[in-house]
Amino acid sequence: MSVLDLARPEIRAMQPYSSARMEASGGQVFLNANESAWAPSGEAGQGCNRYPEPQPAALVEALASLYGVRHEQLLIGRGSDEAIDLLVRAFCRAGEDAILIQPPTFGMYAVCARIQNAAVVEVALTADFTLDVDAVLAALTPSVKLVFVCTPNNPSGRPIPRASIERLAAALTGKALLVVDEAYIEFVDAGEDGSVSDLIERYEHLAVLRTLSKAWALAGARIGCLLANAEVIALLRRIIPPYPLPLPCVAAALEALSPVGKDRAHEHVRIVREQRMRMTEALRDLPGVREVLPSQANFLAVRFEQAAAVYQRLLAAGIVVRNVQRYPNLGDALRITMGTAEENARVLQVLQEPVLHEQALQGDAI
Ligand SMILES: *Cc1c(COP(=O)(O)O)cnc(C)c1O
């Protein structure tokens, strides 16, 4: 059985759009794509009168080497969000198929499924936010085509052990595509489990999501990747829009992946890890903090006695954090992204101020 047997038959059968850029080869005078013959005004737009390469060779090369996969095992999209959407559309028949997720987790899996009218099977993470492989397998039905696992998980910050992922991959063979979202994997401490992308060779129905949005500081450029079996990548190339990657974004990504860019990114990841450790310790000592969940990502999920009030207090001081109280098992938690040392110190300062002071201020306002 091929992994493609899990995909929608009509997607496998369809004739993909053939763009002018794909059909062209060679030539110096380009009159085939109804583009403007003139460059737009302004530095930022140079080269933008032409449609971009669908999968720019230089960026494919840089990312394949970064992630240790072959070119044909990589699809670059507008953030890993686009890859999630493409996977759901390629594998889930509307009104029939399903995805499986483990709440509390990243919201986009369920959003993409609902847009496609695919069902969402939920198998909660354990009380300490790890993956219950047996529970996932017990909940599996023939309609589940995609199983998403997020590691380190957003919003808990806890990584899923490689052994659990491998056990799941082995058990899902021929049944469902396992999609491991590694948006935060660069922030994992040395000595902890790293990326599982090397397992793609062994499990043809394993896919890995990577992104330049977090550790590579390019959230605004929208560049993310799917690493998977070459057949899965070829299938998704049929349905991705013809020119997904804007030229200026590709240029920004190539600069970020240059030797200088890499040094810079590694240094910032090092600072995030150090800040994560310091903030974990400092927050644990504060009154009103119930628990700081151990995190391997660039954020901390923190339980407070009065999370909503703390959220408002930080906001009043100009600091915006994420209220994650709506997530199961996180009803008393806020998610705090690691900023610069100065930004994090401001968070601590606001949380250290006695609450009496705040009540007095509120009294004044009334
Ligand atoms: C931020 C995030 C992403 C989205 O990444 P983009 O590449 O910016 O689309 C994917 N997965 C998780 C778990 C995230 O937290």
Automatic annotation (TrEMBL):
UniProt GO MF annotations: histidinol-phosphate transaminase activity; pyridoxal phosphate binding
Biological pathway: Amino-acid biosynthesis; L-histidine biosynthesis; L-histidine from 5-phospho-alpha-D-ribose 1-diphosphate: step 7/9
Instruction: Name the GO terms of the biological process aspect.
Output: L-histidine biosynthetic process
Q: Which coenzymes or cofactors are required?
A: pyridoxal 5'-phosphate
Q: Which SUPFAM superfamilies match?
A: PLP-dependent transferases (SSF53383)
Question: What InterPro entries is this protein classified in?
Answer: Aminotrans_II_pyridoxalP_BS (IPR001917), Aminotransferase_I/II_large (IPR004839), HisP_aminotrans (IPR005861), PyrdxlP-dep_Trfase (IPR015424), PyrdxlP-dep_Trfase_major (IPR015421), PyrdxlP-dep_Trfase_small (IPR015422)
Q: Which UniProt keywords apply?
A: Amino-acid biosynthesis, Aminotransferase, Histidine biosynthesis, Pyridoxal phosphate, Transferase
Chain positions found as N6-(pyridoxal phosphate)lysine:
K214
Q: Which reactions fall under this protein's catalytic activity?
A: L-histidinol phosphate + 2-oxoglutarate = 3-(imidazol-4-yl)-2-oxopropyl phosphate + L-glutamate
For this protein, the record's HAMAP family field holds:
HisC_aminotrans_2
- Name of the protein in question: Histidinol-phosphate aminotransferase
From which organism does this entry originate? Dyella tabacisoli
